[in-house]
Amino acid sequence: MKKWLILLLPAALCCILQGCSVSRKTHPGQRSDYDVYLLIGQSNMAGRGTLLPSDYNEKMDGIFLLDTAGTPVPATHPFNQYSSIRKTLKIQQMNPGYSFSKRMHALHPDRPVLIVCNPRGGTSILEWMPGTKYYQEAVRRTRQALRYGQLKGIVWHQGCSDATQRTYVYMDHLEEMVAALRKDLDAGGVPFIAGEIPQWLPYSPAFNRQIRTIEKRIPLSAWVSSAGCPPVAGPDDPHFSREGQIILGERYAHKQDSLSRVAPSGRKRKK
Questions:
Q1: Residue 83, domain member (yes or no)
Q2: CA separation for the pair 134, 217 (Å, rounded)
Q3: Cβ(214)–Cβ(175) under 8 Å?
Q4: Helix residue ranges, H only, the chain
Q5: In CATH, what number is assigned to the domain containing residue 157?
Q6: 249 assigned to some structural domain
Q7: Does residue 17 lie within any of the structural domains?
Q8: I need a surface site. Which of 87, 185, 197, 267 has the fewest CB within 10 A?
Q9: Arithmetic mean of pLDDT, 96-102
Q10: Per-residue confidence at 193, pLDDT binned at 50, 70, 90?
Q11: For residue 248, what are the contacts with CB-CB under 8 A and spacing of at least 6?
Q12: Can you give the pTM of this predicted structure?
């Protein structure tokens, strides 16, 4: 008996000195192997598709949100609830992050997904340029998430605020913003994906034509179509419905998976 105690003592001491790191790794807020995704933009990224009562009780295994303290917590609706720049909580509804994260986790079930959701409705791209509050908050919160994993992609859905006045310079601004994000996050090889605004709006065609040029303007980028994504209300509503948001999220995941196969690794967590 004493012989076994002598043999086990070094291992026990090692566990105490290291803080029992093996068991600690299983705690949701302390894992170090998350796939991190940054989701930013305006109201369609914040989410305006109507949530069903059953949505609030859904358990999403392997999917986490970065909370206001900068800690991963199990994902619940609405996905934009922890945004540091959001509008009132009651208007945050279904967004594309839900189906995006579910599909990414389904594609890579051994990798927990950590979503940094930090959009704000009604914003122009000028409010997201380097040096602005919204830009700085996106960078700050993503850096918090990098303590727990590796940045795998940036998903951007924005444009209705710019579609009637800055369409001709929009891609110049977007190109500058993406370059700055990749530099500030040390993530030059991270995919960037943008989405079309609702196709039923009268000003959409000209704007969406610009979005479709993204692959020529920005390396390791892609765009997703909004075709077939219905509105919340009528033809004057700029917001995608619950169904439309789910379709968009799945399309984002498809593009993310395709780009990640050719993209270099993103920035790893700081130790």
A1: yes
A2: 23
A3: no
A4: 2-17, 21-24, 43-46, 97-107, 133-145, 167-184, 204-211, 214-217, 242-260
A5: 3.40.50.1110
A6: yes
A7: no
A8: 87
A9: 98
A10: very high
A11: 44, 96, 99, 157, 195, 224, 226, 229, 240
A12: 0.87
